[in-house]
Specification:
It contains six helices and nine strands, in the order H-E-H-E-E-H-E-H-E-H-E-H-E-E-E. With 227 residues, it is of the alpha/beta class. The chain folds into two domains: 1-32; 41-225, TIM Barrel (Alpha-Beta Barrel). Strands 1-2-4-5-6-7-8-9 form an eight-stranded mixed barrel. It starts with a helix and ends with a strand.
């Protein structure tokens, strides 16, 4: 076998090994991975209708101690599984927080009314409410920065006036690049950083979106909460 052909065989074999290793990592290791946590920190998840029905007792037994549960989106959408998830998590002893997906197509006051209307009579749960700020999956409108800052400020002011807690901000990279909203970032942050612990101040860390948790069919976002 010539040197060139031998090199191609070695390269092909190496590539095959890397592909297999990547597949094992993605489908075997990564779904079961949980990062080391510090004293007082807890593992949790964030869920929506995408997870379907959830066995919250099994979730609790799998070491999950809190959940952020999608409540609403925009001005008129309520997650179909919100009520069931809210009640199920409470019954299983999993601390709860509700979150709202903020759309750029609807006034902040309308969105706040939708979110607050969805919260059950027993209040906002054990965790501060959160708002999800992303461009992915958002409407097509891209208003200017001043308008977004104004509408988001209105939303946050109304929610915080009723819940008496600062709203936690989950800010996607795409949203942050287009709408820095620096005047709002003094609030608690829920940060996404794939597998690696984030730097700086944060109250929640989204570790990945590929976790396997007992009681949930398919993938779910894994989170860590600071005390």
């Amino acid at each position: 076998m010539g040197r060139g052909r031998r090199w191609l065989v070695v390269a092909a074999a190496t590539l095959a090994v890397l592909v297999v290793a990547a597949a094992v990592g993605r489908y075997v290791w990564l779904p079961t991975y949980r990062p080391g946590i510090h004293s007082g920190e807890r593992y949790g998840i964030d869920v929506s209708n995408h997870q379907g029905g959830i066995d919250w007792n099994a979730v609790r037994r799998d070491g999950i101690r809190f959940a952020y549960i999608k409540a609403t989106e925009g001005g008129d959408f309520t997650d179909a599984y919100f009520a069931a998830n809210w009640a199920g998590a409470a019954a299983a002893g999993v601390d709860r927080g509700a979150y709202h997906y903020f759309t750029l197509c609807t006034p902040g006051a309308t969105q706040a009314a939708n979110f607050l209307r969805a919260l059950p009579p027993d209040g906002h749960g054990e965790l501060a409410p959160a708002v999800d700020l992303e461009l992915a999956g958002n409407c097509r409108q891209r208003p200017d920065r001043a308008m977004v800052d104004r509408e988001l400020t209105t939303f946050l002011s109304l929610v915080e006036a009723q819940t008496h807690m600062p709203t936690v901000l989950y800010v996607g990279e795409d949203f942050a690049e287009r709408y820095p909203a620096t005047s709002l970032l003094h609030r608690p942050r829920w940060r996404l950083r794939f597998l690696r612990r984030p730097h700086g101040d944060w109250v929640a860390w989204q570790v990945d979106g590929l976790a396997h948790v007992n009681g949930i069919h398919g993938k779910v976002d894994l989170d860590v909460l600071r005390p």
